[in-house]
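Suppose you are handed a protein chain with no further information: no name, no annotation, nothing but its sequence. What can you learn? This example shows the usual starting point.
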Amino acid sequence: MSTRRAIVATCLALVAGSCAPAPRPLGSGAETFAHHDFGAINFQALNTVAVPWKLTAAALVLDDPAGGGGVDHAHLRRRMMSFGFLWPERLEGAREPVRASAEHPLGLNVGTVTPGLPPVKITVANLGCAACHAGPVYAADGAPDPRAAWLGAPNTSLDLEAYTRAVTHALKRGMTDKPRLLAAVRTLFPDTDTWEITSLRLAVIPLAQRRLDAVPEDGSPLPFSNGSPGVTNGVAALKLQGHTPRDAMEAGFTSVPELADRGFRSALLQDGAYAPPNQERWRAMTRADITPAHADRLADIVSFFTVPSMGQTPKGAHAQIPTARRAFSWLAERRPQTFPGPIDPALAARGADLYARACASCHGTYDGPAENPRLASFPNWRGQIGTDPARAAAFTPALQRYVADSPYRTVIDARHTGQYAAPPLSGVWSSAPYLHNGSVPTLAQLMLLESRAERFAVGGHALDFKTVGVAYPPGHAPWSRRAIYDTRQPGRSNRGHEAPFDSLSREDRWALIEYLKRL
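A reasonable first move is to predict its three-dimensional structure. Written in structure tokens, the prediction is:
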């Protein structure tokens, strides 16, 4: 067999199997959350989520209509940030210092794999926790600072659908001039050796060409929409990994949440589909109930999230349970960014009383200093409040069986609940747009102080600290591309959760917003 044929055969075989490098050592909980790859730097993940990084980066730079022709890291940085990836200079939100990478965006884990005989060398990039779950730090005027990222905050500008389509388009264009594409790889990554260039030329590019030929022009390689800025479609991604039946629309969109106080949950996901086995799925929790054992059970479930988000197999994800426990142990103690704008103390005090009467029965009770309340108890309420039903319907009995037939059968009690779980509201001020599908741009619109917009822009936005939500004030230069959220589309309705706001006076609703800034 020729060297070319051997390399191609090896690559094709390895893409069908699991070929991961040696496990990475665990750092602190925050470091693990920010940078660990959860074992997902492997050839198999290239089938769905991961990309050949150097080839992809070069293609994106060459295909950028606004790039001006420069092939350098500054151009790559601008291109990746246009999709909402943060590439910060510093990371905040952790007690101990956590390094920021200058080599690639936050939450895009990059590593080299060299398995096989003869060995193929390829640099693989895959999503990590911090891609979605680290947001920009906000200034006192609501302006985002993408040079600083707050770990555990939602990245409400990350547009995975735009990124997926752009990568596909760029690689298709790049394949029309392969020498130019490989020259750009060498320019962007001058440390790329002959071994990797040969692997790209003889194995990776031919394989990518065959897959790209099957994708329509300007189409997506995925059979579903990945969402929009700050909105993902994790259940559809899980169905793809599990080869389970999919609906025609597959519109179970989910807004990326703030992760503060998630340890109070007794079941995870928007519908509470995942719960620890042999425990009551919906049970009230207090601080005393958040034991190390409870945190470990939730972390074990969280490790399964790497199946849809990183393309892991259930077996591979299960092996990462210790990693998930390390990251979750940090999440249990982290706090959201303190609201940076002004707060009217008298109005917030009035709002605290209103919250206790109108909101706490679903979203939990807060206590402690008025200026810094902390979640004390959480009811784990679930039900229907008139919001878009697509996500609640998306988790099917087939997915329940997929989990039950995997190594997670002893870790997750997976069920179709058909309901929505009320979330904690800690850090809610930074998590606009609102509702489970991100369909309402401000708290003022959610509370019916203003009409809910049928269409609105989101991505690279600032925050309006009066209405508390998405804003593009005069002079604001969005740090990522804007997209239009259309609430008329499947899975994106902005209806529901009119109560209790429709029974409160306007003054009471403004007071409630003022109090929520403190959580």
